[in-house]
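Reviewers asked in the last cycle whether our approach scales beyond single polypeptides. To address this, we selected a multi-component target totalling 560 residues and predicted its structure end to end. The input consisted of the following lines:
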Amino acid sequence: MNPAGFSAQARRALAIAKKDIRIYYMKGPVLIFGIFMPVFLFLSFLMGGRGLPLPFLVSGLVGMTLFFTATAVSPAIFPWEGQAKTLERLVSCPVTVGTIVFGDMIASFLFGVGVSLVTVFIGLALGVPLLHGAILLAAIVIASLCFSAVGMLLAVPPTNTPSNIMMLSALVKFPLVFISGIFLPLEQMPPAGLALSVLSPLTYCTDLVRYSFSGDHFFPVWVDFAALVVFSLAFCALTVVLHKKTLPERM
Amino acid sequence: MSVAIRASGLTKVFGKTVAVDHVSFEVREKEIFGFLGPNGAGKTTTTRMLTGVIPPDAGTATILGHDICSRPLQAKQEFGVVPETSNAYTDLSAWQNMMLMAELYGVPRDLAGERASGLLDMVGLLPRKDQKVAAYSKGMKQRLILAMALVHDPRLLFLDEPTGGLDVGSTRMILSLLRDLNRNGTTIFLTTHNMEEANRLCHRVGIIRAGKMVAIDAPERLKAAIGRVHKIEVSFDREVPAGALGRLEGVLGAERTGDKWQLTAENRDAAIRALVAFSREIGAEIITLNTPAPTLDDAFLRLTREEPP
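The resulting structure, written as structure tokens, was:
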């Protein structure tokens, strides 16, 4: 057996993901927070009386849920494990830094996909028609991968104090929600807002989800997918490189 | 005998502090090597470099023929680690922790179950294998960590203070397991503060002070090497004058401790002969006469107090 081989490292990444799901994700508060917060934000905009159509709001709900859930826990795993010294155990095992990062990403990805599918069913239950199911599924999968990488990027600063990372995480995540066409359609955004929105991967995800539910979209579908793929690849590469650099500082 | 660990010029600098300064040594296969040193001497930093947890700033280390910097996965596959701080996942059960380790070391599933059962049985945790580790005592956690480190049947085991803060029962169990493992061919690298443990367990010990290795040898040879001044303990059936004892041939000093006298002597034989002659001369009977050998504690204190060479 070659421990450095791709299949060996892939199996070990899955083991890390399984551990993360058991320890960090399968907890009542995490699951409830993952669904409740986007639902309440959605309800506040639904009842706000701004007359936005339901398919638009449901698209925002799905995009927002995916973004919040895929980035909810992953930024804090490294600091938690650094604090508990379990990270030292992982690092002394025959796994690469990339394997640890991808293991955490897999857990985050699965959590993002699972919880956002719940909100898709909420939308369907509210009577919103699903026009492009395959596009929606593909968008959720690629966007969840992309947001998982965002979550791991937020974990890069070498602190073992989870609250520091959660604060940084909130500072990055909330502004992104407001520039990504979730509460204000991209067509109605001022030019400066639109310029900022193209820098957010959440914009392309929301645009695809909106297309799936209502047929409306701002960017061509292929542009949305291409942007999500490019963001995913760039974030994955960047997070591995940066974690390799900062990991020894956590020990 | 082939080499299990070869450290060459290992160096680690934190800011302006040189934590480990060009440390070089070898550990032979199938030996128990004790790594001793006072607090802050660089023991844990050296162990972390050897186990690939932190990279060295200079120097290299090969573990069972694999360079820990250029082939870390191959090197790590060969050894198990019991770190200084208990670090099993407390939200998982002992069984889940064992299975996680087996997956991380690529142990096939059926073999992993068999080994996990055997190891948990060996450390006395099999009846509580499904309980979350959070509910375990410190001794149980430490025994679990030892079992976790052995799930892939490593040829080399690193242990950092494995019995620190444990009760006598857990300590004895762990030391007995280490002896059994070594008897079956496992090389053991043991970092410890406990001189008695090192003395009883290790074939050779290395002593590190202020980031530098100051001695590497078998415990008995280290003790002999510092035994230039001998101790003699003697007691008489009556009071004897202190000044007279101190002036005996070969005696450097005499100090009363309770009902005994502690003498230091350069020439043990001459001092004992003089003591016997002295007791006859004053008509006193010698009740006890002991010549305690220097302990590893003495060697450790001597070697870690002296100025750097």
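The radius of gyration of chain A is 18 Å. We regard this as preliminary and will revisit it once experimental data from Aim 1 are available.
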